[in-house]
Specification:
The chain is of the alpha+beta class. The protein has one domain: Cyclic Phosphodiesterase, Chain: A (Alpha-Beta Complex), CATH 3.90.1140.10. It is 27% helix and 43% strand.
């Protein structure tokens, strides 16, 4: 049976500010072994679903259509940089998300309807935009920490979010390749 590795996300359009962050952080950390995320694949994950067969994917699409009809467009802003698991042991570099509660409510609805009515309290959600992955540890931990802290006050312009997507993730030797399987438009409102 054919399967796909899927997740639900909000695609983020590359802005001048995002490009500036990639460029400047890349220069500051050029000595580090960082696999930068392709700016065409920028996204904020709402829920990773793993491997699903085509029949399951159709059921998921139907549920996501219903969820999209319950939500109106909203705004979010990228802000500050951070690292997982911490800035002292960075493996993933990310930009934070400053958003109204709508982002969290959307994520809770998706979680509830797709993961057997799981209460949102049982799932820790930390919205972020991954910008790079550090392979094999850092050469200069103090330099990486200093760079991250330097960007603590950074903010991008507000982004209007009018849709979310169901994406397939195909793992390759060069990194994941993302393909949008379906787009779910939120109701329009003046935001």
């Amino acid at each position: 049976m054919k399967t796909k590795r899927i997740f639900i996300a909000i695609k983020i359009t590359n802005t001048d500010e995002i490009s500036k962050v990639f460029r400047q952080v890349g220069l500051e950390l050029k000595e580090e072994k960082i696999k930068w995320v392709d700016k065409n694949g920028l996204h904020v994950t709402l829920l990773f679903l793993g491997t699903k067969n085509l029949e399951e994917i159709e059921t998921i699409k139907n549920k996501l259509n219903g969820i999209a009809n319950e939500f109106t467009a909203f705004r979010l802003r990228l802000r500050s940089l951070g690292a997982f698991p911490s800035i002292n042991q960075p493996r993933i570099l990310w930009a934070g998300i400053n958003s109204a509660s709508t982002l969290f409510e959307l994520q809770k609805a998706i979680l509830y309807h797709l993961i057997n009515h799981m209460p949102a309290e049982d799932y820790k959600y930390s919205p972020h935009l991954t910008i790079g992955r550090i392979k094999g540890g850092v050469k200069n931990p103090d330099r990486v920490k200093e760079c991250i802290l330097k960007w603590n006050e950074w903010e991008d312009c507000e982004l209007l979010i009018t849709e979310f997507v169901l994406m397939e993730s195909v793992l390759t030797q060069k990194g994941p390749v993302y393909d949008v399987l379906e787009t779910f438009r939120l109701k329009r409102q003046n935001v």
